[in-house]
Specification:
By secondary structure, this protein is of the alpha/beta class. It has one domain: Rossmann fold. The chain has helices at residues 9-15, 48-59, 73-82, 94-105, 122-125, 139-144, 157-168, and strands at residues 20-23, 35-36, 42-43, 63-67, 86-88, 112-115, 130-133, 147-148.
Length: 175
């Protein structure tokens, strides 16, 4: 369990500034698998603890959104279920999306946390105030981030990062 005392002071300082969390989808909220049925229907699996973590972060006043390079009706449905209104799909230039987000919500890089798993995420991961990656992220991403979760993408990595942020900012829920 992450406690405020177990978080290094430099992380606590960064995390106190966080007002928004943005996430990649494939490889972060999912394990990265894309499954098509014989009828061509796409399916993905999402971890329920990640979903609850997102809701808890939103209840604590943090804006949560998704930035993904692919387009998927499944992702749109999951975002709707979680109450996420900031969904950016088909976004290969994620740094431009970050610029747009920051302009709309009057945010600075230091106020944004981002979790990504592959090289398309690096421009954003290098800019934001707090960067994270699931344990199975691309090696270049693992080298670039502030925090690597013990969990892999699609298996509770997002919840682990959110718990870390909430613990550092004294917003822990105890759940």
């Amino acid at each position: 369990m992450t406690t405020r005392k177990s978080i290094p002071e430099p992380h606590r300082d960064k995390l106190r500034e966080i007002r928004a969390i943005f996430l990649d989808v494939d490889g972060v909220l999912t394990d990265g698998s894309i499954v098509y049925t014989s009828g061509g229907v796409e399916s993905k699996a999402f971890h329920v603890q990640d979903g609850l973590g997102i809701r808890l972060a939103m209840e604590k006043g943090l804006r949560v959104g998704l930035i993904t390079g692919r387009r998927s009706e499944v992702v749109e449905r999951r975002a709707r279920e979680l109450g996420i209104t900031d969904l950016y799909q088909g976004s290969l230039d994620k740094a431009s999306v970050l610029d747009e987000i920051e302009a709309v919500y009057d945010l600075k890089d230091e106020q944004v946390a981002y979790m990504g798993d592959d090289i398309l995420d690096l421009p954003v991961l290098r800019r934001v105030g707090f960067s994270a990656a699931p344990a199975n992220a691309h090696p270049a991403v693992l080298q670039a981030v502030d925090f690597v979760t013990g969990n892999t993408g699609g298996n509770g990595a997002v919840r682990e990062m959110i718990d870390y942020i909430l613990a550092a900012t004294d917003n822990a829920t105890g759940t």
